[in-house]
């Protein structure tokens, strides 16, 4: 499993990174400290979360390599992901799109930096 980010997505995410931070690719299922909701919906939803290394990452037990470093995931969320994925920035709407070999996984990938006040 691997994720490649385009230049726009790399710039958006790395602007929030430093050596003391981690990136989570959160499956929005309402489980865990960083999942925003558990609404019943027909669409798979994910978000990119930035946390500091000293924040709780319980449940995030696996990583996916990317071209900006590893993204931590809840292992069971792999069933909603694909082997080769991309994250692209939609310049017009300033949102991120997560896609795989078969098509779009999430056309409005959330982004929350939990280290910002």
Write the layout of secondary structure elements.
Blueprint lengths: L1 E4 L1 H8 L6 E7 L18 E7 L9 E3 L6 E3 L10 E7 L4 E6 L3 E10 L4
Descriptive overview:
There is one protein chain. With 117 residues, this protein is mainly β. The protein has one domain (2-113): HesB-like domain (Hypothetical Protein Aq_1857, Chain: A, Sandwich), CATH 2.60.300. 7% of the residues lie in helices and 40% in strands. The protein has one helix and eight strands, in the order E-H-E-E-E-E-E-E-E. It has one helix at residues 7-14, and strands at 2-5, 21-27, 46-52, 62-64, 71-73, 84-90, 95-100, 104-113. Strands 1-6-7-8-3-2-5-4 form an eight-stranded mixed β-sheet. InterPro entries: ATAP_core_dom. It holds the Pfam family Fe-S_biosyn. Residues 1-112 form the Core domain.
